[in-house]
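Entry 14. Ran structure prediction on the chain below.
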Amino acid sequence: MNILFVAVFAASSSALLFKDAAAFLPALLAGAGKGVALGLQLAAVWAVWLGFLHVAEDAGILRGLSRAVRPLTGRLLRTKNEAALGQAAVNLSANLLGMGGAATPAGTQAMRLLGEEGNAFGEAMLFVIGCAGVQIFPSSVIALRAAAGAADPYDVYLPILLASLCALVIGVSLVLLAYALKKRLRKKGA
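Output, structure tokens:
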């Protein structure tokens, strides 16, 4: 990725230098300024949502949501490991609330616990569910659109929700299909 970024930067810089050398430095500085401003806006949104996560955790909302999704999580991941289920439920709950970065530590801990018990199916399922990105409130995308000056930053909510739900259904179906085929092939080979 870094090589690609450097190549695009070098090509665009060369083109600008060739066309109008005097505009290169002002364009570079203006782009850097916009990048810093956008980074600060995103950091502010991130801080608000992390604060919300801590308030939700202290109020028991995250624990309640985690408890509510735990039975479904147990069936989806095919495990009874309470520690893994707890971490997976926290991961999925935080992802649902649009706090993907805050969900990462719980997700990696759940993956480690599932891996220790040899539950490759659970690991694959948790990975696919996390990658589907179903969010009740996609805060990062809305913040990016608001920072870019979108007239209605929320108009992407329904398409994002529908696309992520479709990705979830297809992903879960494919994991179920892949492991069913794997099980069938094992039975034929045995």
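The two ends are 44 Å apart (CA to CA). Will compare against last week's run tomorrow.
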